[in-house]
Design goal:
Distance between the termini: 43 Å
Strand content: 25-35%
Strand order of the largest sheet: 9-8-10-11-7-12-13
Oligomer: single chain
Structural class: alpha/beta
Radius of gyration: 21 Å
Largest sheet: 7 strands, mixed
Helix content: 25-40%
Shape: globular
CATH architecture of the largest domain: 3-Layer(aba) Sandwich
CATH superfamily of the largest domain: P-loop containing nucleotide triphosphate hydrolases
CATH class of the largest domain: Alpha Beta
Length: 347
Amino acid sequence: MTKTKAMNINELLRYAVSCHASDLHLSSGVVPLVRVDGDLKPIESACSLDEPAIESMLLTLLPEQYKPVLANQLDIDLGLGSSDLQARFRINIFHQNRGISVAIRLLPIKIPTLKELQLPDIFYKLCEIRNGLILVTGATGSGKSTTLAAMLDYINSNLSSHILTIEDPIEYIHESKKCLLQQREVKKHTDSFDNALRAALREDPDYILVGEMRDLETIRLALTAAETGHLVFATLHTNSTHESIDRIVDTFPTNEKPLIRMMLANSLQAVIAQRLLKKVSGGRIAATEVMVCNTAIRNLIRENKTAQIHSSIQTGREHGMHTLAHSIKELITQGLVSKALHHHLTL
Protein backbone atom coordinates (compact mmCIF):
# COMPACT_ATOMS: atom_id res chain seq x y z
CA MET A 1 0.00 0.00 0.00
CA THR A 2 1.38 3.41 -0.98
CA LYS A 3 2.22 5.60 2.01
CA THR A 4 0.60 9.04 1.76
CA LYS A 5 2.04 12.37 2.83
CA ALA A 6 1.05 16.01 2.96
CA MET A 7 2.42 17.67 -0.19
CA ASN A 8 2.83 21.43 -0.55
CA ILE A 9 1.68 23.31 -3.65
CA ASN A 10 5.14 23.35 -5.26
CA GLU A 11 5.45 19.57 -4.85
CA LEU A 12 1.98 19.06 -6.38
CA LEU A 13 2.75 21.32 -9.34
CA ARG A 14 6.12 19.64 -9.87
CA TYR A 15 4.42 16.23 -9.83
CA ALA A 16 1.83 17.43 -12.38
CA VAL A 17 4.55 18.79 -14.68
CA SER A 18 6.65 15.61 -14.36
CA CYS A 19 3.79 13.34 -15.46
CA HIS A 20 2.81 15.70 -18.35
CA ALA A 21 -0.61 16.41 -16.83
CA SER A 22 -2.90 18.91 -18.51
CA ASP A 23 -4.67 19.80 -15.24
CA LEU A 24 -4.25 19.62 -11.47
CA HIS A 25 -7.35 19.58 -9.23
CA LEU A 26 -7.36 20.51 -5.53
CA SER A 27 -10.75 19.88 -3.91
CA SER A 28 -11.73 20.03 -0.24
CA GLY A 29 -12.20 16.53 1.20
CA VAL A 30 -10.51 14.77 -1.74
CA VAL A 31 -6.99 13.62 -2.66
CA PRO A 32 -5.37 15.91 -5.28
CA LEU A 33 -5.97 14.68 -8.85
CA VAL A 34 -4.20 15.14 -12.19
CA ARG A 35 -5.55 14.75 -15.72
CA VAL A 36 -3.13 12.80 -17.92
CA ASP A 37 -4.00 12.09 -21.58
CA GLY A 38 -7.61 12.98 -20.82
CA ASP A 39 -8.03 10.70 -17.78
CA LEU A 40 -8.41 12.02 -14.23
CA LYS A 41 -6.23 10.16 -11.70
CA PRO A 42 -5.62 10.65 -7.94
CA ILE A 43 -2.11 11.38 -6.76
CA GLU A 44 -1.82 8.24 -4.65
CA SER A 45 1.16 9.46 -2.63
CA ALA A 46 -0.72 12.61 -1.50
CA CYS A 47 -3.05 13.04 1.49
CA SER A 48 -6.65 14.16 1.22
CA LEU A 49 -6.99 17.95 1.44
CA ASP A 50 -9.22 19.99 3.72
CA GLU A 51 -10.23 23.61 3.15
CA PRO A 52 -7.58 25.16 5.46
CA ALA A 53 -4.86 23.19 3.64
CA ILE A 54 -6.02 24.47 0.22
CA GLU A 55 -6.33 28.05 1.50
CA SER A 56 -2.79 27.80 2.89
CA MET A 57 -1.54 26.58 -0.51
CA LEU A 58 -3.28 29.47 -2.27
CA LEU A 59 -1.76 32.05 0.08
CA THR A 60 1.66 30.62 -0.87
CA LEU A 61 0.85 30.56 -4.60
CA LEU A 62 -1.10 33.78 -5.22
CA PRO A 63 0.50 37.19 -5.85
CA GLU A 64 -0.08 39.64 -3.01
CA GLN A 65 -2.83 41.60 -4.82
CA TYR A 66 -5.01 38.48 -5.09
CA LYS A 67 -4.98 37.60 -1.39
CA PRO A 68 -7.71 40.08 -0.36
CA VAL A 69 -9.74 38.91 -3.39
CA LEU A 70 -9.53 35.32 -2.12
CA ALA A 71 -11.28 36.38 1.10
CA ASN A 72 -14.01 38.43 -0.61
CA GLN A 73 -14.76 36.80 -3.96
CA LEU A 74 -16.33 33.41 -4.73
CA ASP A 75 -14.63 32.85 -8.11
CA ILE A 76 -11.16 33.91 -9.25
CA ASP A 77 -9.44 33.46 -12.65
CA LEU A 78 -5.78 34.24 -13.16
CA GLY A 79 -2.65 33.15 -14.99
CA LEU A 80 0.74 32.59 -13.34
CA GLY A 81 4.16 31.50 -14.58
CA SER A 82 6.96 29.52 -12.95
CA SER A 83 10.45 29.78 -14.43
CA ASP A 84 11.56 27.07 -11.99
CA LEU A 85 9.03 24.57 -13.39
CA GLN A 86 9.22 25.89 -16.97
CA ALA A 87 5.44 26.14 -17.11
CA ARG A 88 2.55 28.55 -16.90
CA PHE A 89 -0.67 27.89 -15.05
CA ARG A 90 -4.23 29.03 -15.71
CA ILE A 91 -5.89 28.97 -12.31
CA ASN A 92 -9.59 28.98 -11.43
CA ILE A 93 -10.56 29.13 -7.75
CA PHE A 94 -14.16 28.34 -6.84
CA HIS A 95 -16.37 27.15 -3.99
CA GLN A 96 -18.46 23.97 -3.82
CA ASN A 97 -20.50 22.17 -1.17
CA ARG A 98 -17.44 20.69 0.61
CA GLY A 99 -15.47 23.94 0.56
CA ILE A 100 -12.90 25.65 -1.66
CA SER A 101 -11.51 24.03 -4.83
CA VAL A 102 -8.88 24.91 -7.43
CA ALA A 103 -8.58 23.85 -11.08
CA ILE A 104 -5.09 24.48 -12.51
CA ARG A 105 -4.45 24.12 -16.25
CA LEU A 106 -0.77 23.51 -17.08
CA LEU A 107 0.68 25.35 -20.08
CA PRO A 108 4.26 24.96 -21.33
CA ILE A 109 6.36 28.13 -21.43
CA LYS A 110 7.63 27.19 -24.90
CA ILE A 111 4.93 27.75 -27.50
CA PRO A 112 4.61 24.66 -29.75
CA THR A 113 4.91 25.21 -33.49
CA LEU A 114 2.31 24.16 -36.06
CA LYS A 115 4.79 21.51 -37.19
CA GLU A 116 5.23 20.14 -33.65
CA LEU A 117 1.44 19.94 -33.28
CA GLN A 118 1.34 18.03 -36.62
CA LEU A 119 -1.40 20.26 -37.96
CA PRO A 120 -2.32 20.14 -41.69
CA ASP A 121 -0.82 22.50 -44.29
CA ILE A 122 -4.04 24.53 -44.49
CA PHE A 123 -3.20 26.04 -41.08
CA TYR A 124 -0.15 27.78 -42.56
CA LYS A 125 -2.26 29.21 -45.39
CA LEU A 126 -4.90 30.48 -42.95
CA CYS A 127 -2.22 32.42 -41.06
CA GLU A 128 -1.39 34.33 -44.25
CA ILE A 129 -4.94 35.65 -44.77
CA ARG A 130 -4.94 39.41 -44.13
CA ASN A 131 -8.52 40.13 -43.04
CA GLY A 132 -11.73 38.47 -41.89
CA LEU A 133 -12.63 36.09 -39.06
CA ILE A 134 -11.14 32.69 -38.19
CA LEU A 135 -12.84 30.64 -35.47
CA VAL A 136 -11.24 27.82 -33.50
CA THR A 137 -13.90 25.74 -31.77
CA GLY A 138 -14.17 22.73 -29.52
CA ALA A 139 -15.05 21.65 -26.00
CA THR A 140 -13.12 22.86 -22.96
CA GLY A 141 -9.71 21.19 -22.95
CA SER A 142 -9.67 20.44 -26.68
CA GLY A 143 -6.47 22.41 -27.34
CA LYS A 144 -7.99 25.59 -28.82
CA SER A 145 -5.60 27.92 -26.96
CA THR A 146 -2.57 25.85 -28.00
CA THR A 147 -3.59 25.84 -31.68
CA LEU A 148 -4.14 29.60 -31.64
CA ALA A 149 -0.83 30.19 -29.85
CA ALA A 150 0.96 28.17 -32.56
CA MET A 151 -0.80 30.12 -35.33
CA LEU A 152 0.10 33.47 -33.75
CA ASP A 153 3.69 32.29 -33.28
CA TYR A 154 3.88 31.41 -37.01
CA ILE A 155 2.67 34.92 -37.91
CA ASN A 156 5.02 36.45 -35.34
CA SER A 157 7.97 34.54 -36.83
CA ASN A 158 7.26 35.17 -40.50
CA LEU A 159 5.36 38.44 -41.03
CA SER A 160 6.05 42.06 -40.08
CA SER A 161 2.77 43.08 -38.49
CA HIS A 162 1.04 44.20 -35.28
CA ILE A 163 -0.69 41.47 -33.26
CA LEU A 164 -2.98 42.39 -30.37
CA THR A 165 -4.49 39.77 -28.05
CA ILE A 166 -7.37 40.14 -25.57
CA GLU A 167 -7.43 37.22 -23.12
CA ASP A 168 -9.01 36.18 -19.83
CA PRO A 169 -6.50 35.30 -18.47
CA ILE A 170 -3.32 35.45 -20.60
CA GLU A 171 -2.21 31.87 -21.14
CA TYR A 172 0.83 31.57 -23.44
CA ILE A 173 3.32 34.43 -23.21
CA HIS A 174 4.57 35.62 -26.63
CA GLU A 175 7.71 37.63 -27.27
CA SER A 176 7.75 40.07 -30.17
CA LYS A 177 9.76 38.55 -33.04
CA LYS A 178 9.14 39.97 -36.53
CA CYS A 179 5.84 41.37 -35.24
CA LEU A 180 4.93 43.84 -32.54
CA LEU A 181 2.91 41.50 -30.31
CA GLN A 182 0.96 42.99 -27.39
CA GLN A 183 -1.17 40.98 -24.94
CA ARG A 184 -3.97 42.43 -22.81
CA GLU A 185 -5.68 40.64 -19.93
CA VAL A 186 -9.32 41.33 -19.05
CA LYS A 187 -9.70 42.81 -15.53
CA LYS A 188 -5.96 43.55 -15.43
CA HIS A 189 -5.26 45.66 -18.52
CA THR A 190 -8.84 46.34 -19.65
CA ASP A 191 -12.31 46.20 -18.10
CA SER A 192 -13.89 43.80 -20.61
CA PHE A 193 -13.54 42.08 -23.98
CA ASP A 194 -15.86 44.57 -25.66
CA ASN A 195 -14.04 47.64 -24.23
CA ALA A 196 -10.71 46.21 -25.40
CA LEU A 197 -12.13 45.44 -28.85
CA ARG A 198 -13.48 48.97 -29.23
CA ALA A 199 -10.08 50.35 -28.29
CA ALA A 200 -8.31 47.86 -30.60
CA LEU A 201 -9.88 49.46 -33.65
CA ARG A 202 -7.88 52.63 -32.77
CA GLU A 203 -4.62 50.81 -32.00
CA ASP A 204 -3.54 49.93 -35.56
CA PRO A 205 -3.50 46.10 -35.25
CA ASP A 206 -3.24 43.79 -38.25
CA TYR A 207 -4.26 40.71 -36.23
CA ILE A 208 -6.56 40.57 -33.20
CA LEU A 209 -7.01 37.54 -30.98
CA VAL A 210 -10.22 37.52 -28.94
CA GLY A 211 -9.87 34.83 -26.27
CA GLU A 212 -13.56 33.98 -26.39
CA MET A 213 -16.64 35.39 -28.15
CA ARG A 214 -18.86 34.99 -25.12
CA ASP A 215 -21.54 37.68 -25.51
CA LEU A 216 -23.49 39.59 -28.13
CA GLU A 217 -21.49 42.82 -27.93
CA THR A 218 -18.11 41.05 -28.21
CA ILE A 219 -19.35 39.07 -31.23
CA ARG A 220 -20.69 42.25 -32.87
CA LEU A 221 -17.39 44.09 -32.38
CA ALA A 222 -15.34 41.10 -33.59
CA LEU A 223 -17.41 40.98 -36.78
CA THR A 224 -16.95 44.73 -37.24
CA ALA A 225 -13.18 44.38 -36.79
CA ALA A 226 -13.15 41.52 -39.31
CA GLU A 227 -15.00 43.69 -41.84
CA THR A 228 -12.68 46.66 -41.45
CA GLY A 229 -9.38 45.18 -42.59
CA HIS A 230 -8.21 43.08 -39.62
CA LEU A 231 -7.77 39.33 -39.29
CA VAL A 232 -9.60 38.32 -36.12
CA PHE A 233 -8.99 35.00 -34.37
CA ALA A 234 -11.55 33.88 -31.80
CA THR A 235 -12.77 30.78 -29.97
CA LEU A 236 -16.19 29.25 -29.38
CA HIS A 237 -17.31 26.25 -27.32
CA THR A 238 -18.98 24.32 -30.15
CA ASN A 239 -18.31 20.85 -31.52
CA SER A 240 -18.57 21.33 -35.28
CA THR A 241 -17.93 23.97 -37.92
CA HIS A 242 -21.55 24.57 -39.00
CA GLU A 243 -22.75 24.60 -35.37
CA SER A 244 -20.41 27.56 -34.75
CA ILE A 245 -22.20 29.65 -37.36
CA ASP A 246 -25.60 28.82 -35.86
CA ARG A 247 -24.31 29.68 -32.37
CA ILE A 248 -23.20 33.14 -33.46
CA VAL A 249 -26.41 33.92 -35.35
CA ASP A 250 -28.61 32.64 -32.51
CA THR A 251 -26.96 35.06 -30.07
CA PHE A 252 -28.72 37.96 -31.82
CA PRO A 253 -32.39 39.04 -31.74
CA THR A 254 -34.58 37.68 -34.56
CA ASN A 255 -34.71 41.00 -36.42
CA GLU A 256 -30.89 41.19 -36.58
CA LYS A 257 -30.22 37.62 -37.72
CA PRO A 258 -30.40 38.27 -41.50
CA LEU A 259 -27.84 41.10 -41.14
CA ILE A 260 -25.52 38.92 -39.00
CA ARG A 261 -25.72 36.10 -41.56
CA MET A 262 -24.75 38.61 -44.23
CA MET A 263 -21.82 39.90 -42.12
CA LEU A 264 -20.64 36.32 -41.46
CA ALA A 265 -20.99 35.38 -45.12
CA ASN A 266 -18.81 38.34 -46.06
CA SER A 267 -16.15 38.19 -43.33
CA LEU A 268 -15.83 34.59 -42.11
CA GLN A 269 -12.70 33.01 -43.59
CA ALA A 270 -12.53 29.63 -41.85
CA VAL A 271 -13.76 27.57 -38.92
CA ILE A 272 -11.56 24.96 -37.26
CA ALA A 273 -13.27 22.42 -34.98
CA GLN A 274 -10.98 20.13 -33.02
CA ARG A 275 -10.82 17.51 -30.32
CA LEU A 276 -7.85 15.79 -28.69
CA LEU A 277 -7.31 12.04 -29.10
CA LYS A 278 -4.92 9.74 -27.23
CA LYS A 279 -1.80 8.85 -29.21
CA VAL A 280 -0.59 5.27 -29.38
CA SER A 281 2.82 6.43 -28.11
CA GLY A 282 1.36 8.48 -25.23
CA GLY A 283 0.22 12.08 -25.14
CA ARG A 284 -2.56 13.51 -27.28
CA ILE A 285 -2.97 14.90 -30.78
CA ALA A 286 -5.63 17.13 -32.32
CA ALA A 287 -8.10 15.71 -34.82
CA THR A 288 -9.50 18.64 -36.79
CA GLU A 289 -12.35 19.61 -39.05
CA VAL A 290 -11.60 22.60 -41.29
CA MET A 291 -14.16 24.65 -43.18
CA VAL A 292 -12.74 27.29 -45.54
CA CYS A 293 -15.26 29.81 -46.80
CA ASN A 294 -15.59 29.54 -50.56
CA THR A 295 -18.42 30.96 -52.66
CA ALA A 296 -20.68 27.94 -52.07
CA ILE A 297 -20.31 28.07 -48.28
CA ARG A 298 -20.80 31.85 -48.19
CA ASN A 299 -24.09 31.37 -50.06
CA LEU A 300 -25.19 28.65 -47.61
CA ILE A 301 -24.50 30.98 -44.67
CA ARG A 302 -26.34 33.85 -46.33
CA GLU A 303 -29.36 31.64 -47.14
CA ASN A 304 -29.49 30.03 -43.67
CA LYS A 305 -28.71 26.55 -45.04
CA THR A 306 -25.90 25.69 -42.62
CA ALA A 307 -27.04 22.04 -42.39
CA GLN A 308 -25.66 21.61 -45.94
CA ILE A 309 -22.18 22.89 -45.03
CA HIS A 310 -20.94 19.43 -43.99
CA SER A 311 -21.45 18.19 -47.57
CA SER A 312 -19.53 21.17 -48.93
CA ILE A 313 -16.63 20.37 -46.60
CA GLN A 314 -16.56 16.77 -47.86
CA THR A 315 -16.22 17.98 -51.45
CA GLY A 316 -13.87 20.89 -50.70
CA ARG A 317 -10.54 19.09 -50.46
CA GLU A 318 -8.93 21.35 -53.09
CA HIS A 319 -9.55 24.32 -50.73
CA GLY A 320 -7.88 22.54 -47.79
CA MET A 321 -11.15 21.46 -46.20
CA HIS A 322 -11.64 18.15 -44.44
CA THR A 323 -14.09 16.57 -42.02
CA LEU A 324 -13.32 15.32 -38.54
CA ALA A 325 -13.91 11.74 -39.75
CA HIS A 326 -11.29 12.20 -42.49
CA SER A 327 -8.80 13.66 -39.98
CA ILE A 328 -9.23 10.71 -37.60
CA LYS A 329 -8.83 8.19 -40.45
CA GLU A 330 -5.58 9.93 -41.46
CA LEU A 331 -4.28 9.74 -37.87
CA ILE A 332 -5.17 6.03 -37.72
CA THR A 333 -3.48 5.38 -41.11
CA GLN A 334 -0.32 7.13 -39.87
CA GLY A 335 -0.34 4.92 -36.76
CA LEU A 336 -0.68 7.91 -34.44
CA VAL A 337 -3.99 6.85 -32.87
CA SER A 338 -5.60 3.46 -32.33
CA LYS A 339 -8.29 1.96 -34.56
CA ALA A 340 -10.27 1.49 -31.33
CA LEU A 341 -11.17 5.18 -31.67
CA HIS A 342 -13.51 4.44 -34.60
CA HIS A 343 -16.49 5.58 -32.51
CA HIS A 344 -15.13 9.16 -32.80
CA LEU A 345 -15.55 9.16 -36.57
CA THR A 346 -18.82 11.06 -36.48
CA LEU A 347 -19.37 14.49 -34.95
